[in-house]
């Protein structure tokens, strides 16, 4: 073995360790978190697009993407368009999730509250149709960081049909594990209180 | 290199004929045979390059196939099994890499190892993101993959991975779904530049020519990412001048278009830029106020500064080698004109002055190229100058308030002049060659 190749081998091992550090750290942070994650339910509609490399998945469209915050209007958020901000999460009495506030810094998150890093899209002014006048209030349009739920290529179209029927009754939810540092992992897609895979497999078995 | 091997083979076939004709004796023939056979052995064969290309394409296809294979009916495995499978390609790549390095394998193996390990890492990250449904955007994913691939480019001296890196760079800026921060994009670009620079500077590098093509990709990336942050016109003009100046050295050594792609690319690029400049004047250096931020301006000037520094270094090198001629000087003038134009535009000066400067510049460049073509009997320089003059005259025809008939006649005369000049020049070239042969 040449001396130059020995140096290359050492460098390669170091580079490989650095490359593996990211996925390994990710697994550890998800599997062994310091503080156990809390589960949040987000109401959603789904579509079934196709990705040539990643296969079938369902695309998620959340109702929580539109947030009305009467105390924080355009003045606060306009400069953030296209940037990241933090959505403070709260649970509704029915168990679903509500975005209680949008803040720009982790220090502004009230203690004990969970948060997610979201993309701030734009501010949409309210419009009074009767007086044909733009109001001083409006909604903040954001984008939640999870937009996909991966599924078996045979099950994805079936899931879309199944959820399309259920969303009319407003009962499709994505269950998300939210960690105390703002990390998240999509746990399951729940249709009428039942995980989607269980529901679809049950249907196939019948 | 393949071109040289072909020439040596042809020469070896000629040697017996030269001996039979009595031009050389058998001793000289034997010495020449030994000398050139030795050189032929050292020259890499075209088959070697073909094998290299095949191993690169093969590695990419295998990596793609592995991704698709794992995506098929994925949910039948438990989470632990899925995580283990996610790391399989990178383990395979690592094993191949260690085998390649410990057994001193050829460059084809090294290229394959680099691509496979890098693809394996990308697969592991993508699959983990899928297993935990953590989402993310393509630009975030590509940024991470490229950062992890960068050391492998250097370790394996892998031109294939550098090429894939160049392609991947264009997926990192992001779009509607999110933007990668400018410092990260600058790091990604700056990370690969020493590798490209090393191969471009080293005359013995077998990848020197290919790196000339890749360098244009890196420059294009810089325009896209940093150009619009202040004044893309200035960056385009400077980069055009840099590539033109850099192409003059290989041109003087007799490198053809394929070996010196900077020459045709930068000539066409400057032709288009100058044509736009002669029509819109100073507005070509317009400063984009809508997307201007202090950070953006800083990174624009870092990129522009890199182009300017490169220009100065190239000019200095040519000066020390006593190669500074009129056209190199013209490139320096172009950079000065672009900087001046940007300054005028910043102070909202009337753009008509810059327009006049551009017209004069294009005219002088075109005419001097024509003269150079005639003097050096170079068809390329002659036609380049002719094209530049014809476009300048044509554009002024469109500007002027001339009737259709006069315009039509003008264009016909211009076209006939173009053809006539080429016929005249071809004959002159043929006469010059005949005279050279007779003289010999």
Structural class of chain A: alpha+beta
Helical/strand content category of chain B: mainly alpha
The assembly state of the depicted protein chains is heterodimer
**SS summary, helix count of chain A:** 4
Q: Tell me the radius of gyration of chain A.
A: 22 Å
Low-confidence segments of chain B, given as residue ranges, are none
Total number of strands of chain A? 12
Distance between termini of chain A? 63 Å
Order of strands, main sheet of chain B, comes to: 1-2
The number of distinct structural domains of chain A comes to 2
What general form of chain B does the structure show? Answer: flat
Key traits:
heterodimer, A: 206 residues, alpha+beta, 2 domains, 7-stranded antiparallel sheet, 5-stranded antiparallel sheet, 4 helices, 12 strands, 41% strand, B: 440 residues, mainly alpha, 3 domains, two-stranded antiparallel sheet, 16 helices, 2 strands, flat
Question: How would you describe this structure to a colleague?
Answer:
The complex is a heterodimer of chains A (206) and B (440). Chain A is of the alpha+beta class. Chain A has helices at residues 3-31, 74-77, 155-167, 196-205; strands spanning 38-47, 50-51, 55-62, 66-68, 84-91, 97-103, 114-128, 133-143, 148-150, 172-178, 184-191, 194-195. Chain A has two domains: 1-32; 36-76 and 123-205, no CATH class. In chain A, strands 1, 2, 3, 9, 10, 11 and 12 form a seven-stranded antiparallel beta sheet that branches. Chain B contains 16 helices and two strands. Chain B is flat. The interface between A and B is large, with 38 and 41 residues.
């Amino acid at each position: 073995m040449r001396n130059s190749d020995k140096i290359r081998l050492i460098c390669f091992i170091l580079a490989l360790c650095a490359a593996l550090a990211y996925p390994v750290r990710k697994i550890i942070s998800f599997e062994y978190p310091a503080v156990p994650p809390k589960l949040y339910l987000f109401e959603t509609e789904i579509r079934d697009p196709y990705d040539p490399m990643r296969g079938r998945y369902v695309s998620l469209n959340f109702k929580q993407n539109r947030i009305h915050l009467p105390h924080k209007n355009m003045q606060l958020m306009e400069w953030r368009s296209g940037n990241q901000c933090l959505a403070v999460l709260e649970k509704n009495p029915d168990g679903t999730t509500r975005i209680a506030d949008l803040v720009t810094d982790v220090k502004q998150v009230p203690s004990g509250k969970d948060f997610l890093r979201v993309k701030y899209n734009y501010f949409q002014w309210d419009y009074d149709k009767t007086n044909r006048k733009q109001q001083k209030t409006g909604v903040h349009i954001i984008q939640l960081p999870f937009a996909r739920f991966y599924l078996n290529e045979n099950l994805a179209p079936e899931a879309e049909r199944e959820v399309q029927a259920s969303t009319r009754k407003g009962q499709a939810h994505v269950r998300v594990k939210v960690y105390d540092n703002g990390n998240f992992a999509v746990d399951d897609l729940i249709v009428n209180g039942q995980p989607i895979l269980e529901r679809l497999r049950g249907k196939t078995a019948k | 290199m393949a071109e040289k091997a072909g020439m040596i083979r042809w020469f070896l076939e000629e040697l017996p004929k030269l001996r039979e004709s009595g031009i050389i004796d058998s001793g000289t023939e034997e010495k020449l045979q030994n000398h050139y056979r030795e050189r032929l052995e050292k020259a890499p064969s075209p088959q070697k390059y073909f094998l290299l290309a095949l191993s690169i394409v093969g590695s990419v296809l295998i990596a793609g196939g592995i991704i698709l294979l794992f995506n098929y009916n994925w949910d039948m495995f438990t989470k632990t099994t899925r995580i283990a499978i996610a790391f399989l390609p990178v383990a395979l790549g690592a094993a191949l890499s260690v085998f390649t390095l410990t057994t001193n394998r050829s460059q084809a193996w090294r290229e394959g190892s680099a691509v496979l390990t890098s693809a394996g890492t990308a697969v592991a990250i993508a699959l983990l993101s899928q297993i935990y449904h953590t989402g993310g955007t393509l630009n975030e994913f590509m940024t991470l993959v490229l950062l992890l691939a960068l050391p492998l480019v250097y370790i394996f001296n892998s031109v294939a991975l550098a090429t894939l890196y160049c392609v991947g760079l264009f997926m990192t800026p992001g779009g509607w779904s999110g933007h990668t921060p400018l410092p990260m994009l600058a790091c990604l670009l700056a990370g690969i530049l020493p590798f490209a620079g090393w191969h471009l500077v080293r005359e013995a590098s077998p990848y020197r020519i290919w790196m000339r093509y890749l360098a244009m990709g890196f420059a294009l990336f810089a325009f896209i990412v940093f150009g619009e942050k202040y004044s893309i016109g200035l960056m385009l003009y400077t980069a055009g001048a840099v590539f033109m100046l850099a192409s003059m050295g290989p041109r003087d050594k007799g490198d053809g278009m394929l070996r010196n792609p900077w020459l045709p690319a930068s000539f066409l690029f400057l032709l288009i830029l100058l044509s736009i400049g002669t029509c819109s004047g100073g507005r070509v250096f317009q400063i984009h106020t809508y997307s201007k931020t202090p950070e953006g301006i800083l990174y624009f000037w870092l990129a522009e500064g890199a182009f300017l520094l490169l220009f100065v270094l190239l000019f200095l090198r040519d000066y020390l080698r006593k190669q500074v001629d009129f056209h190199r000087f013209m490139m320096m003038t172009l950079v000065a004109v672009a900087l001046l134009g940007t300054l005028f535009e910043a102070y909202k000066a009337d753009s008509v002055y810059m327009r006049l400067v551009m017209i004069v510049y294009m005219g002088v460049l075109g005419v001097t190229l024509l003269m150079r073509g005639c003097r050096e009997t170079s068809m390329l320089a002659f036609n380049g100058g002719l094209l530049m003059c014809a476009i300048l005259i044509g554009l002024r025809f469109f500007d002027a308030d001339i009737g259709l008939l006069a315009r039509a006649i003008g264009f016909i005369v211009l076209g006939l002049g173009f053809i006539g000049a080429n016929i005249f020049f071809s004959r002159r070239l043929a006469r010059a060659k005949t005279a050279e042969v007779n003289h010999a």
